[in-house]
Amino acid sequence: MNPLLEIKNLSIDFISERATTQAVKNISFTVERGEIVAIVGESGSGKTVTALSILQLIPSPPVRYSSGQILFSENGRSVENLLEKKHKHLQSIRGNKISIIFQEPMTSLNPVFTCGHQVVESIKAHKKISASKARREALEWFLKVKLPEPRKIFNRYPHQLSGGQKQRVMIAMAICCHPSLLICDEPTTALDVTVQNAILQLIRDLQREQNMGVIFITHDLGVVGEVADKTIAMYKGEIVEKNSVREIFTHPQHPYTKALLACRPVNHLRGERLPVVSDFLSSAPTRIDHSVPGEKELTNVQLPARENHQQDVLLHVKNLSVRFSSKKNLFGKSIEFVRAVNNVSFQVYKGETLGLVGES
Questions:
Q1: Are the C-beta atoms of 296 and 289 separated by less than 8 Å?
Q2: Contact 253, 241 (CB under 8 A)
Q3: Is the pLDDT of residue 257 over 80?
Q4: Is residue 71 classed as helix, strand or coil in its secondary structure?
Q5: Max Cα distance, the chain (Å)
Q6: Residues near 226 by beta carbon (within 8 Å), at least 6 away in sequence
Q7: Peptide bond preceding 61 in cis form (omega within 30 of 0)
Q8: How far is the C-alpha of 117 from the C-alpha of 140, rounded, in Å?
Q9: Spatial separation of the C-alpha atoms in residues 278 and 323, rounded to whole Å
């Protein structure tokens, strides 16, 4: 059988009046059914441009595909080159056979429609079902992606949700039609650790149930170690290394891959200068840890002591409570409230970095 997706010798240019910039240079890789392929690299390495090109989501001009093919084979027998397909045919594939979760949900969700309306619209575009059944399916997906109070969120607009909640709406929209290939462009960036684990587990479960192929674009090597079967490292528009996850983490070959692994904060004690990729490309690294994420933890780290003096307080928050009106009566008076902040107090001292953590 043919691979689910095969990219052959693909080169992508951006053309302007002044110059032509080559964003992707002669890359090739495959995605099999039931396989999760992670693409890692710095910002500007060509990861997202490659992903968007699969569905022709970059305007032409300025983009130009100077060489290569993007071959998609849903059934394993017939193959179609997506670069040769017309807009109407691509519309039948987008969100149906191949779907994408974008990095920034606020630029992907329409601010003038409710979240539920947008998911229902996606379902009805590719399925011949009634509006009521599409609504039920949308609510089921809201439950699967761990959205609290799905019925209320169904009728809310994107600006009424937190960043993590908007991202989960996007994920529901992307997978509601059971695509054969799912492209995830930093899908868990806006999520807290608890919800991130739930979303990653959901993607893994769907991948197994539907035998779905997944392209997972991320800068988080910890996530790569958790979910991926195969890893591709991109640097300045080129693929510099591709291998199984275990081989990449235990025996990296290219200096850039070694640098990405060495620059993980988990490898360094608090107070140490964190190295950057250029440190390893210009000279031999002084310290590299190739352990798979999760196998090593920093324990018994002695944090520097800090003496607090009252005169050093820069900000003092005392017993702060914030609530929002959630329901009004016929006369416009608020009768129900959502308590967002409940009696919170803290201080910020001079020279201190204070972290606020918690779920969306």
A1: yes
A2: yes
A3: yes
A4: strand
A5: 73
A6: 200, 293, 294
A7: yes
A8: 14
A9: 47
